[in-house]
User: Fold this.
Amino acid sequence: MAVQFKVPASPSRSTLTIDTFKGADFTNDPASVDIDKSPNILNMIREVPGKVRKSMGYQTKATYEGAINGYHTMHGKSRGLIHVGTKIIETDFAGNDTEKYSGANDSRSRSWQFKDKVCILDGKKLLIWDGTDVAPAENNATIPVTLIGGAPAGGGTTYKPLNLLTPGFTEQFLGTVGTTEYHLSVTDLDDTLCKAEVMQPDGTFNTLEEGSGFSVNRTTGVVTFDSPPGESYVTGEDNVKITAYKTVSGYADRINKCGIGVLYGASGDLNRLFVSGNPDNEYINYQWFSATNDPTYFPDTNYQIIGTSKSAIVGYTVISSYLAVFKDKQEVEQNIVLVGSTTLNNEVTFATQTTLHGAPAICKDAFAYLAGEPLFLTSLGIYAITSQDITGREYTNLRSFYLNGKLLEENNLENAYAFVYKDFYILSVNGVLYILDGLQAVQTDKSAPYATRQFVGYYRTNVDANCMWEIDGALWFGSKTGKVCKFYTAVNDVNSYNDDGAVITARWETPDFDGKLFYKNKTFRYLAVRLQEAIATSIRISVMKRGLWTVLTTDSSTANYLSFSSLIFSKFSFSSDNTNRVVALKTRVKKVDKARYRFENINVNEPFALDKIGIEYVEKGNYKQ
Assistant:
């Protein structure tokens, strides 16, 4: 009788496919990271939702002496202002530079446009750019009419408050027959020459300069005309206007020393400039606001004291119809104060409506809006305030849980800088970028149970951005060492993938794979990666087993295709197939409880984009160390 042999059945193979890539998870242990996230992603960004590609690089467009502290634009003007050290220079970054101002604060600056003027705040002077010149706002500040209907001997009706930015004020009088002496309500005037305007028979005013038609006793505040102005030619209308000057010590510095601001107003009109951030101890919790549509007029009555005097105002956002004023960590009970507007006797006033408690803001330059949400930086990560929070007493909307594992280890977070470019919130600190994706949010997990969702995050290195801005759809940044750099925008151009000629290392690392049963032996037998095709691209694949990394393969040809318009002889390919390609290899990662894979591009001027990853493995027997 013939002996029959039975071939033992092969262990069944299990498969794992990754077809969605949702950024970083630096916070969870690699064994606990979701399969669509990476515990060690580097220099990759969203291609389309669910897919990632290598981050594009940048090119230095100009170099200056001093830190780049800001860039300011004016609607309809092709050239902007670059703030370098203590200078403000008008430039097109093509070698056409004109210095407009010196003596600026060597610190980050911010700007807002009002009609045909841009006001710039640098913590030293409030500056005004009229499209031609840049000068302190106090040089051409609005001089208010403080008194009307005055009698020559004194008195009258108070009209408008003094302007903190200028010592100038105007008082108006109803003249009387034969009177030459007019008494101002202010004594001990400055030496600045006064001006007088006297009504003529046709109702117009003739301007007189001091010393030519009148004299001034500065001690008593009495103005004496050479000829009496007489009575008004228009019944009930003031016919004498006198402009004089008296400096109130520290008034202008209340505004000039402010370093933060926001546009806000009544009924949703963003027509007033609110400023704060004055470092003087007595003013750290003060905010001032300008007159409507006039950033050169800050009435001395237009101020609010927000919270306790031991806690400074850090920043602003506008939420619905409210101005959210953020206090620092010294404010124990009210980290955010919501200010609203009311109208009383046809006058708009601003008052505190309610307060919110939560993680305090720590950085004045990290406030920005992403996907309709105001974001800000705290010692616990990047938070959002939503309209729903207004009706509550606390806010808990953490948005950076997946980045916090690295972000919260950074030093000097209070010096970070944030900018929103397209759908990304970009936070620059210590030469790296932490990026939140406004197009991709995932429901929160048990690690952040009170936040409604988390934004997908990315991590970019080698970007020394002290400030950022956008010109014609491209992202620019200025460094602390004086470089002005522009990020490339052509995704399919191989020359977009370098940082000033340097390699950009792109990496996607998987979480630990431990199969269906974590305690079983695994043998990983097959690996496939589908790459997006390119004129020149490559991939290096490594595996970590028992804590050690081993390179499995390097492929520099499979995903390349031939393009005569962009021919690169060193990376020549005969293939004309410009569809996605699969790089596949057999592997023998044997008898391990888990494995982790790394996919990298380490060459200059090479795009790199992942589409799918597939793994086959076998589970058999219990794992033994």
About this structure: Helices lie at 251-256, 404-407. The chain has a mean pLDDT of 92. Residues 363-471 form one domain. Residues 251-256 form the longest helix (6 residues).
